[in-house]
Amino acid sequence: MSEPSSETREIRTDYLARVEGEGAMLVRLKGDELEEVQFKIFEPPRFFEALLRGRQFSEAPDITARICGICPIAYMASACNAMEQVCGIELPEGIRLLRRLIYCGEWIESHTLHVAMLHAPDFLGYHGAVELARDRRDLVELALRLKKAGNEVMRVVGGREVHPINIRVGGVYRAPTKGELRALVPELEWARGAALELVRWTAGFDFPDYEHDYTFVAMRQPGEYPLERGRLASSAGLDISVDEYEEHFTETHVERSNALHSTLAGVGAYLVGPLARYALNAGELSPLARDAAREATRS
Hints:
Number of domains: 3
Helix content: 40-55%
Distance between the termini: 38 Å
CATH architecture of the largest domain: Orthogonal Bundle
CATH superfamily of the largest domain: Cytochrome-c3 Hydrogenase, chain B
Number of strands: 10
């Protein structure tokens, strides 16, 4: 039996095509052991913090929304939340629900884009969604229609699909009418069934047999699945208000990347995003979503 190789090998990917921005990755192996991974974001910094200095507080949501054309609501809502907290504004329930609705619209269109157009081709061995459509046109068309349903929610509540302009500190500039909201219902009812079909499809992908002891960090809001509000929680016991963030998290710059690296005191690296949110809040899912999750994990 031969001895394990101690040779050091490097795997370099100079351009990652499945990220919203510009990235690269270096993986260094010593024999069969993973020695180092470097994830590099070389997209230039855009200095939004500097752009906000000296501006009116009411301008923050519209400026920060320009951070991303796919998920502008995440930044717009965060800016609104910050300004409202500083000003002591309590949102009326109707306004809060409108903000949650437009956030749902963004999740529909953004997650569908990621799952079906960016993620699925890699799992299934296609160069991209165009090549996937040659064999599974039905699924690609379903995903495009599902994304369009999310875009329509953003348009009705936010005024337009990309960088919505109707959300402001303390409310909205124009409330959608009941008729406009009611008109969304038929397509969203279809979208609910389409989303379940997408879950069943992706549950059948060949996922690597890999486990890791992550520390998850996400918002938590008792009584609802957190989107637009909540406290910061972790699987290591963290439970703080958002304004306590800097007391527990440290952001540093590393030479290889323009993205700041964040660590949690006493923990170090941690995982955020949909997986962390699900891990910490699965009990708050709707019965339909909970059943779909259970079915997917059995696939």
